[in-house]
Amino acid sequence: xxxxxxxxxxDHEAASCYSCGYxxxxxxxxxxxxxxxxxxVHDAAHCLRKQERDNLAExxxxxxxxxxxxxxxxxxxxxxANLGLSELGFWLLNHGQVKGAEYARPNENGILVVMDxxxxxxxxxxxxxxxxxxxxxxxxxxxxxxxxxxxNSEYGExxxxxxxxxxxxxxxxxxxxxxxxxxxxxxxxxxxxNPILDLPPHLTRPQISPPRAEPERETIRMSA
Amino acid sequence: MKRFPALLLLASLPFGAVxxxxxxxxxxNAGESAEYYLGGGLWPKSLIPDAAVxxxxxxxxxxxxAAAVDLEFIGxxxxxxxxxxxxxPGPTQFYGPAAGTEELAGGDPSLQRVRENPDGTFTVPExxxxxxxxxxxxxxxxxxxxxxxxxxxxxxxxxxxxxxxxQKSNDIMRFLxxxxxxxxxxxxxxxxxxxxxxxxxVDIEALHQKWFSDSPAVLMLYYREQPQQTQLVFNDSIRDxxxxxxxxxxxxxxxREGAVADLAPDQVEKMAIELSIQLYWLSRLMETxxxxxxxxxxASSVHEMxxxxxxxxxxxxxxxxxxxxxxxxxxxxxxTVVFVLGGLCVVGCAAWIVMWWRGRENVSGEPLxxxxxxxxxxxxxEFCGGGFVSMSFELNEGT
Lengths: 224, 399
Prior knowledge:
Order of helices and strands of chain B: HHHHEEHEHEHEEHHHHHHEE
Largest sheet of chain B: 4 strands, mixed
Radius of gyration of chain A: 18 Å
Distance between the termini of chain A: 24 Å
Strand content of chain A: 5-15%
Strand order of the largest sheet of chain A: 2-3-5-6
Oligomer: heterodimer
Largest sheet of chain A: 4 strands, mixed
């Protein structure tokens, strides 16, 4: 993973960035510590037409039916120059509450598409769970596939295409995970087989639990 | 004690070998055994003059014994030997060519071999010269000439000497009859021998005018197995209507077809077919000929003209290979193009379906559940640890 501010690599359980010291507290200091309510497609820049919103909502409905655990949302805004897109995505996933997202779709399962119309930038913020399913390469491919629509200011179609590409990635990843054994699943989810960063795998192994039984999230440290 | 039966059996074996004998069949009637020899005698004992000598010395026969017994030989005489002077055969006598017949066989030139003379030279046997297949024909004179030239021909094939085979003659005659039914210009074929000549007092062209002045006809004078001497005689009306080059081409084409075959019936058949084809186009030319396009006729080759669909069906049946079936060619070309285009369309559709299936973006199917697990938090985030991918879509910038 990378730091949202300085984009340097960050360890799996670092409390703050080793380079710049950035953490969620810094983001809260900038954007606020309160929680905000978001629409599934939050068009703060008012750049989507109704037809585009309807089509995008239909696509998101299909994706939510296909992936009942995942949260798909988008934020389109015209951000000030001193506000980083990655910082906004980091803060929105931690402080945002998407309307209509039931309890089965927590923010850590979220895939948030953030777009800044002022700087013509678009990004994808991933929750903890979504990070394990969607790699940086897959995210970049999805963004690149939507580039022609973005250049032509077809933002609705661009976001729709991004979500569909990510849906294919999730579908492929889900079928792949079904074939893995328990040990292979541990290794895959811990990033041992496909490390994105040049960092050694952490000693803490993710614990696989049956479908959600309790809302409290804990980290179980496995003894070596 | 146990070896005693084996030793006894071994000792008794030589006794069986000593007393063994050939088991010959026995005569039912004891009296017949004196009249026939057992073991291969072809003739009764009474017919063998030297029975006693033959029995004593099988395979030999002496002239004195034959002379002593005055019995007539009933068997077949040896080839080349007079039956009366042939020696009487014994029970095992050789019945092939007698010794005296070799001299007669040596007189045959076909059996001669190369012999070396005392002076070192060799005597080569004379080669067998095959006789000519045809007997020399009499000259066309008298009654034979009258058969050809006295009266106008009734049949299209004039062959009173039967120079062609019967089957081919019938075929050619039937073809010429069909041609006469279908064409305005009839064909008469007159077959004469290769060494025969038209009598000097017979003018074949005048005869043609006399016979066929009222109806157009072509008289083909064919010399047996000499197609290069073939003559074609046309009516003056036909010859005057078209330039001479046309008739020269017709004759050349006929001679070329005749030269393909070796036998006279085949030559006549091929030349008649070719002449029929040429006459068809000749009639077409005569129909379209006028004074304005006369240079066109001289410039165009009759043989190179393309066949048309209204060609006589007879020629289609008899010589189908000479026609160019344009409709069939076009049909085959169209079918080929259709098949190729259809194949390309099918391949393209299949490729498009594969590409569409691989590149489809709709999400369908059963809901997919992922195994849940928990990951340690980082950077203090409750739900997100800063995982982010971005891209710029400004035209002048990269990612």
